[in-house]
C-alpha cells in the first residue's frame, strides 16, 4: 500500500520519459512567448505588480546589504518555485518540487555562494555573527557551536520544508482520490467537494511555500 501510495512521485521507469519529466520544470520558458513581455496586457500588468511588490519587500529585508539586481534573483526564485508548485497540481504532470534532489539543487548552490562570498569578503563580520551581541563569556563556546550548526543545516531545512509540504498535499489528494470507488453517490459528491477545497488549499500552499523559500533565502543573504 505504501509503495503504491508513494509511486505517484516516481518520474518514470523509462530513461527517455525520465528526462522529459525533469524537463517539465523548464516549461515556463516555452509557455510564455517573447511577445508576451513586449505587448502590454492585463497579465503583464499583474506580473509587474507582483514583481514590484516583492522587489520592495526584499529590498527592505536586505537592508544595508542591498545591491542593484540582487532582489531580481530572489523574485525570480520565488516565481520559479511557485510555477513548479502549481505545475504539479495539474493531472499527469510531474511535480519536481516534491523531490529532495530538486529542492536541494536550488538551496545548496545559493547557500554555498553566500557562504563563500561572506567568508571571503566579510570575514570579520562572519566571525562576529557566530556570537550574538550580549552573550555571556561562559556561553560563547556553546553559541559558536550552535550558530555553526544552524548555518550548516540551512540549505537542508530550506529543501526539506518545500519538499515535505508538496509531498503532504499530494499524498492527501491521492488518498482522497483512491477512496471514492466504494462510496455511495452522496458520499462521492462530498468527496469531490472536499477535493476541490483541498485543491484550493494546495494552491495557497504553493504560493506560501514559494514565498517562504524566497524570504528565507533573502534573510540568509542579508547576514553576509
From TrEMBL:
CDD domains: ATP-synt_Fo_a_6. Keywords: ATP synthesis, CF(0), Hydrogen ion transport, Ion transport, Membrane, Mitochondrion, Transmembrane, Transmembrane helix, Transport. It is found in: Membrane; Mitochondrion inner membrane. It holds the Pfam family ATP-synt_A. It is a multi-pass membrane protein. The chain crosses the membrane at residues 20-39, 70-93, 100-120, 182-201. Its main location: membrane. It comes from the Eukaryota. GO terms for molecular function: proton-transporting ATP synthase activity, rotational mechanism. GO terms for cellular component: mitochondrial inner membrane; proton-transporting ATP synthase complex. Belongs to the ATPase A chain family. This is ATP synthase subunit a. It comes from Cloeon dipterum.
Amino acid at each position: 500500500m505504501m509503495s503504491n501510495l508513494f509511486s505517484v512521485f516516481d518520474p518514470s521507469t523509462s530513461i527517455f520519459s525520465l528526462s522529459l519529466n525533469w524537463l517539465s520544470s523548464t516549461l515556463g520558458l516555452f509557455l510564455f512567448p517573447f511577445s508576451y513581455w513586449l505587448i502590454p496586457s492585463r497579465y503583464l500588468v499583474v506580473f509587474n505588480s507582483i514583481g514590484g511588490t516583492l522587489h520592495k519587500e526584499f529590498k527592505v529585508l536586505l537592508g544595508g546589504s542591498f545591491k542593484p539586481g540582487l532582489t531580481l534573483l530572489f523574485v525570480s526564485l520565488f516565481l520559479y518555485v511557485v510555477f513548479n508548485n502549481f505545475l504539479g497540481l495539474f493531472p499527469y504532470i510531474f511535480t519536481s518540487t516534491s523531490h529532495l534532489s530538486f529542492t536541494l539543487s536550488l538551496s545548496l548552490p545559493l547557500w554555498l555562494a553566500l557562504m563563500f562570498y561572506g567568508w571571503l569578503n566579510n570575514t570579520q563580520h562572519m566571525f562576529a555573527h557566530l556570537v550574538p551581541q550580549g552573550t555571556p563569556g561562559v556561553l560563547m563556546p556553546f553559541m559558536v557551536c550552535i550558530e555553526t550548526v544552524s548555518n550548516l543545516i540551512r540549505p537542508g531545512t530550506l529543501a526539506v520544508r518545500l519538499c515535505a509540504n508538496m509531498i503532504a498535499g499530494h499524498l492527501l489528494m491521492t488518498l482522497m482520490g483512491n477512496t471514492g470507488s466504494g462510496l455511495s453517490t452522496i458520499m462521492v459528491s462530498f468527496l469531490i467537494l472536499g477535493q476541490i477545497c483541498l485543491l484550493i488549499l494546495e494552491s495557497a500552499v504553493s504560493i506560501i511555500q514559494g514565498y517562504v523559500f524566497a524570504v528565507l533565502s533573502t534573510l540568509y543573504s542579508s547576514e553576509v
